Amino acid sequence: MMGHSTEALRVEGLHKSFGRLEVLRGIDLVVGQHDVVALIGSSGSGKSTLLRCINLIEPIDAGRIVVQGEEITADGVDVDRIRRRIGIVFQAFNLFPHMSVLGNVTLAPRKVLRQSRSEAEAMASQLLERFGLADKRLEYPDRLSGGQQQRVAIVRALAMQPDLLLLDEVTSALDPELVAEVLNVIRDLAAGGMTMLIATHEMGFARDIASRVCFLDAGRILEAGPPAEIFSEPREERTRQFLQRVIDAGRL
Amino acid sequence: MNDGGPAGRRSDVAGRSRRASRAPSRSTAIAVVSTVVVFSLLTLVVVNAPGWDKVQREFFNAENFQRSAPGIIAKFAVNVRLFLIAEVLILVWGLVIAVLRSLPGPVFLPIRIIATIYVDVFRAVPGVLVIFLLGFGIPGLAIPGVPNDPFLWAVVALTLLYSAYVSEVYRAGIESIHPSQTAAARSLGLSQFQALRYVVVPQAVRRVIPPLLNDFIGLQKDTVLVSFVGVVEIFRQSQIRQQASFNYTPYIVTALVFVVLTIPLARLTDWLVARERRRGAGGGPGDGDSARLAALETQAATRGTG
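YS: structure for the whole thing
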């Protein structure tokens, strides 16, 4: 029981295929309460798929996923109830273009948590204020910069007060000068104790913020450990090669 | 009823503006000259036809026009009532069918099958037949308590018919919304139905307003079909006038009424299509999303290998 209370997420033997392509080939992963775990690895290594499986967007083929002690991949689990507790932020923001910022942020609290409009809007305004978006409350997504859109998407996920936040390459769609504002938001969240699982190409960021880094390669977690260890003295040859490529590309 | 309509008109609009921007005065001149020449030639051919005098007397009789027009136009109120009531019902019922056809998962297969059969049948059967079958068939059953007002059954028949078309327009709109929108909604804990209700359908409806207007124009014209089951509306009225005077001018009156009604709607549709196009090109919510995604995928791929 002690183990459960400090464990936010446990993934065991997770397999996932798309047709004949096996994307995840036995993932084992534990994320502790208030941990920030970074998933690194080249495109196609399975980072995004892993996050989508944890959010139950993709059905899994084998294995189990346990969130806060509850197996969410068990038969008969109410998927919508689980998703309320797990926030996800996508690479392409996926804001609702026909709704204002406030509409985007309050939709789920109102329709899923049955909050009143005023209650939801008060909470949304507070969050938007906190992330420097107070003056954008009534704007529509297409009037915002990419960085602002992504911050709104983060606020939208936070408005559900999730136990766990999944970030799927949230800065990959941004112009370089807009990356920092989004990373700062995530830093802020980490400092506030939010449990996060972050798939990222920002190695410097992963090194700074993560309590643990997992290197994914061909659907497996090849190597995991504290950032200092992974980035300075990786044990695996594949990890070394990957990091070398990142350094060559000037991204570390 | 023409699904290719909006697309065809769209490219036409684009072509016109492109040419116009290149050499405005010259292209205007060409347009004016060619229009005058073509219409003059057509008029000459018609007016010099051997039977023109007879046709002019029977179809374009000014005196008959003046006498029959007020009564015919007055009966147009019946058509207006008919298509306004039917259109509201069609927009609702069509959306219901579209949503039923869009329900995912094996549980809903029977519902999808029923909805599909409905759409197939009502798109296949000629409208006149549906109007006949309902307008004469149901009162013919003489079930106690079931009204036999032909106007009512005309509304029902047009609603059933046009809902089949309109549901397909809605469905195309629903399918044009990128799945990432549904994923985002579901990831926040919204149910499948809530995701449709609050995220997908509102965006889809906005996108399909021009084709919906197109079907609305079709509906307006098809209201004359209900004259076959005894509703005295504009066409029936002009028929009565024609039979009384042995002159076809009342039909010309009816045709003009529809022209006057339909042309502004057609221009409105064009304008909406053009506006939607401009938004799409400007990186608006619709097509921009997929373009952005595609760009991201290439970007991510090069980054991974580089």
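YS: worth flagging: The radius of gyration of chain A is 18 Å.
IM: good catch. Also The CA atoms of residues 105 and 124 of chain A lie 6 Å apart.
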